[in-house]
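In practice, a research group might receive sequence data for several interacting partners and want a quick structural hypothesis before committing to experiments. The following worked case mirrors that situation: the sequences arrive first, and a predicted assembly follows.
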Amino acid sequence: EAQVTQNPRYLITVTGKKLTVTCSQNMNHEYMSWYRQDPGLGLRQIYYSMNVEVTDKGDVPEGYKVSRKEKRNFPLILESPSPNQTSLYFCASSFGTGLEQYFGPGTRLTVT
Amino acid sequence: GQQVMQIPQYQHVQEGEDFTTYCNSSTTLSNIQWYKQRPGGHPVFLIQLVKSGEVKKQKRLTFQFGEAKKNSSLHITATQTTDVGTYFCAGRNAGGTSYGKLTFGQGTILTVHP
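A structural hypothesis for the assembly, expressed as tokens:
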């Protein structure tokens, strides 16, 4: 089944404790992206990747890191999480830039 | 930077009434996409518009892209309870080097009363 998976789905952590949210797709998509969703703000793009080893900042990249070492995986790293990073995070992928995006189920992160 | 404003933020309708949500971009867009997110779910792609003045229909849904490629709308005729959810537009800037950047509107939360 074609899908985008994210792990973990829920995470409660403390300020400053490094964490990684994994994202994987099995559709051989070139483009992958991370978004955060906050009430009243819609979806805001954090980082995107147009291919392996090619990443770029979205609108809200501060406090996040990403890597794209393999085509299928695009992990989101929070080196030192802070409470303002409490949010719902979505990973998405598409065959190419500007095409239909497939979203993962989301990761709800709480930083205390 | 590019901003995409979407209105209204909330819309409550009676089943059978029509619904429209509007998106306005501060810059010219190369294309615009529309997504629907059911409560508790993830965004699901509905459609993409590319050409100036383009109109596309999907059953009761009509999507329009403005002549200047800076605004778009989604119109639902005769809403049903299955239309409940949040509708997002997402635009890609026509100029500049950040071609992969996608900016979403804030979304319109649609409630349909039976």
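Before designing any experiment, note the following. Chain A touches chain B at residues 31, 33, 35, 40-45, 48-50, 56, 58-59, 90, 92, 97-106 (CB under 8 Å). Chain A has a mean pLDDT of 96.
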